[in-house]
Amino acid sequence: MSKIALNKNLKMIVCVGPENIIGDKQPQGNGMLWHIKEELLYFKNITLGHTLLFGASTANVVPIELMKKNREVIVLHRNMNIPKLIEELSSQNKTIFICGGHSIYKYFLDNFEIDEIYLSKIKDTVKIAEAEEPLYLPKIEDYGYMINSSKDFEEFTAYIYKLKK
Ligand SMILES: NC(=O)c1ccc[n+]([C@@H]2O[C@H](COP(=O)([O-])OP(=O)(O)OC[C@H]3O[C@@H](n4cnc5c(N)ncnc54)[C@H](OP(=O)(O)O)[C@@H]3O)[C@@H](O)[C@H]2O)c1
Fold first, then answer.
1. Confidence (pLDDT) at 35
2. Could you tell me which of 12, 20, 88 has the C-alpha nearest to residue 53?
3. Which atom of ligand 1 lies closest to the CA of 17?
4. pLDDT at residue number 116
5. Ligand 1 centroid to 96 CA: how many Å?
6. What is the reported pLDDT for 158?
7. Ligand 1 pocket mutation pick from 14, 15, 16, 57 by most atoms within 8 angstroms of CB
8. Which pLDDT score, from 0 to 100, does residue 46 have?
9. Which residues of 118-154 are buried (b: 16+ CB within 10 A; e: fewer)?
10. Ligand 1 mean position to 18 CA, how many Å?
């Protein structure tokens, strides 16, 4: 199956723990299994002023009303034509961030070529809540992405991945 060709406006942002864990199918609180203030701030700084896409389940647990104050937020449902939506947003020259959850990350990895993947990898020292039904990000290296840059923070390392040329 061929993918929708590389779109310079399309980015992904995700935070992973050990073995690429990203959350719980039955999310508690804001859905995150860890509390890292500097990572939330990093997410905010990267996405500020841009267009954020969330799956319906994640949208139920993250503070989207707060984000709408300084970002455009679009909640994705299965009955939407996502390729058409992406085409429309990029024709308006918007920078689009795929913000999860699990099924949305997988859908985009399977169907689109993404310009940049912002992947925060939390450090082993960070305490992680137990997940009843853990969800894992697929290995993005298997999709042809490789590390382009990295920046170290106290509790996580922020990587940016790009497609191998
Ligand atoms: N660590 C991180 O960076 C991070 C970031 C975000 C989320 N998460 C975690 O991810 C988990 C949620 O993931 P999830 O997979 O359960 O839910 P999700 O991906 O957030 O939302 C799933 C919903 O999105 C809609 N949807 C739209 N297009 C779809 C498609 N192509 N395929 C499937 N669904 C589509 C469907 O809603 P309708 O049924 O209404 O059509 C579906 O029920 C939570 O634990 C959350 O905390 C982690």
1. 95
2. 12
3. 1
4. 98
5. 17
6. 98
7. 57
8. 98
9. bbbbbeeebeeeebeebbbbeebeebebeeeeeeeee
10. 20
CA distance linking residue 69 with residue 132, whole number of Å: 33
User: In the structure encoding, which two tokens stand for residue 42, read together?
Assistant: 């990093």
Contacts of 144 (CB under 8 A, 6+ apart): 163, 164
Q: Is 94 helix (H, G, I), strand (E, B) or coil?
A: coil
Please give the Cα distance from 107 to 64 (Å, whole number).
21
Q: SS3 of 156, please?
A: strand
Residue 6 has a pLDDT of: 85
User: Along the chain (165 residues), what's the average pLDDT of each consecutive run of 10 residues?
Assistant: 88 98 94 96 98 97 96 98 97 97 98 97 96 97 98 98 91
Establish whether residue 95 lines the binding site of ligand 1, counting it when its CB lies within 6 angstroms of any ligand atom. no
Determine the distance separating the centroid of ligand 1 and the alpha carbon of 165, expressed in angstroms: 30
23 Cβ inside 6 Å of ligand 1: yes
- pLDDT, position 37: 97
Q: Looking at residue 66, what is its pLDDT?
A: 96
Q: Report percent pLDDT > 90 for the chain.
A: 93
Set out the domains of the chain in order of their start, with CATH numbers. Answer: 4-163 (3.40.430.10)
For residue 117, give the nearest of 23, 9, 14, 40 by alpha carbon. Answer: 14
